[in-house]
Amino acid sequence: MHPPFLTVRDLLRYAVSRFNEAKLSFGHGSTNAYDEAAYLILHTLHLPLDMLAPFLDAHLLETEIAALLHVLERRVKERVPAAYITHEAWLHGYQFYVDERVIVPRSLIGELLQERFAPWLDETQPVQTVLDLCTGSGCLAILAAETFSEAKVDAVDLSADALAVAQRNVTTYKLNARLNLYEGDLYAPLPAQRRYDLIIANPPYVNEASMHELPAEYQHEPRLALAGGGDGMDIVRRIVEGARQWLTPHGMLIIETGHERAYAEAAFSTLNLNWLTTSAGDDFVFMLNAADLNA
Asked: How many helices (H) and strands (E) does the chain have?
């Protein structure tokens, strides 16, 4: 016998209470119990995700209550990110298919793409080629292709499983003609003569000590996509080291390093890292241009 729930409002209140009681961690699309509960309820009921108020006092069928309780309890008991339950993630208005083969899209590079990397990007030099390293679900590669509509985009990942997810998203957005996926280790699978006006990367950057402290939700994500070695910079070092060869003379390299700014500055003490302003602050994404690397 189900608890005496009647309306969406009843289930929303219950969900927020359960999430708070369980001390869930957020950060995979929402930042608090209320927003996550509202999202899961609206998605499960096949309602518009931006339209909660009109349905708050709608009475629910018993089958709907059962379905909602199943989803809410799974979120609490398994501590699985909501995106893995719904198989979708949203980034700047774009919907992406996701599952446990990829990390949940949340890169700050997405918002910088929306701004076309202003004021750093020289608009007099059109972006014709883009490379997205450690592409995962393909979300940043797709946003880059949408932002720079004339550009050819290449995206690389070491994981064949991740690339299967990326291919599904590329096909959804009908970008197969302009966006190529490569399986391999960073630059290794790329055509030798290719050069890029823009290289972006949201690589594994979590340092080893922090990996042991990750909340349960984050431990559902592939370790390959998170763990960056002792100081978090193992992959970042290799990306920076190889970028000189792959950038055009006016090209830019953009790398996200999360909360690891101190480690990044220690690793690249001889380079002038330009830290870009994002909604999270000025410590999470750095830029180097070809001239910086060649110097």
From this structure: 12, 9
